[in-house]
Write a structure and sequence with these properties.
Length: 192
C-alpha cells in the first residue's frame, strides 16, 4: 500500500488500553461482540491455533479443556482464549494464573507451578526451541480452539477507508499467492 507503518510490540493489556482510548490500532486481535462495538475490523489476517503445553513429567491424560478441572492453567494477562475457555474460566472450572508473556508461562511450567499453559502454536514452539524448555515441556496434540485474527482501529479514528484499501490489497496478495508465501516463510523460521 506504500503507507509507512510504525509497529510497537507492547504488553497485550497496554495495547488494548491504547486502542480503547483511540490512540492505536492493533494487529492480531480476535473478534468479540464487545470489541465490535468499539472497533472497525479488517478481513481475517490469520487463523491462530491455541494449544496446550505441559511438563513432560505430568502423567495425567489431557485431551481437551474438560480434563483440566481444578487444574492451574497459565495464560497471558488480558487475552481471550475462545468461548469455551472463557465459559469454563467464568465458572471457576479451573484456576487461571495470568502472566505477561509465554516465556513466563513456560518458566512456571518448568518449575511445575502450573499444570499447563495455553499458547498460540507457533509462539509455544518458539519457546520450546529454547534449550531450558526443550527437554522438559511438551505440546499436547489437540487444539483448544482456532481463532481468526484481524487488524482493528477504534471507530473514533475513522479508518474505514484505510481498512477497505487494506482489505483490497490483502485479498489481491492472497489471490496471487504472495500472502501465503510471506506466511510460510515467516512460520518456517518458527516451526523448525
Amino acid at each position: 500500500m506504500q503507507i509507512p507503518v510504525v509497529i510497537n510490540p507492547l504488553p497485550w493489556k497496554r495495547a488494548l488500553h491504547l486502542a480503547d482510548n483511540g490512540l492505536a490500532g492493533i494487529a492480531g486481535i480476535y473478534k468479540t461482540l464487545d470489541r465490535q462495538k468499539k472497533f472497525d475490523y479488517s478481513d481475517a489476517l490469520f487463523q491462530e491455533e491455541l494449544v496446550l503445553f505441559i511438563h513432560k513429567d505430568n502423567k495425567a491424560i489431557f485431551r481437551s479443556l474438560i480434563d483440566f478441572r481444578k487444574k492451574k492453567i497459565g495464560v497471558i494477562r488480558g487475552w481471550r482464549y475462545g468461548n469455551e475457555f472463557d465459559t469454563y474460566r467464568e465458572n471457576s472450572f479451573f484456576y487461571v494464573e495470568e502472566v505477561k508473556n509465554d516465556e513466563q508461562n513456560f518458566s512456571m511450567l518448568l518449575y511445575k507451578r502450573i499444570d499447563c499453559a495455553i499458547a498460540i502454536k507457533e509462539s509455544g514452539r518458539m519457546q520450546l526451541s529454547k534449550k531450558r524448555f526443550h527437554e522438559a515441556i511438551i505440546q499436547l496434540p489437540s487444539c483448544v480452539t482456532t481463532n481468526a485474527t484481524y487488524l482493528i482501529f477504534p471507530k473514533v479514528a475513522n479508518q474505514t477507508v484505510l481498512l477497505s484499501r487494506f482489505n483490497d490489497t490483502l485479498n489481491g496478495m492472497k489471490q496471487k499467492g504472495e500472502y501465503k508465501e510471506i506466511i510460510d516463510k515467516s512460520l518456517s523460521k518458527v516451526i523448525e
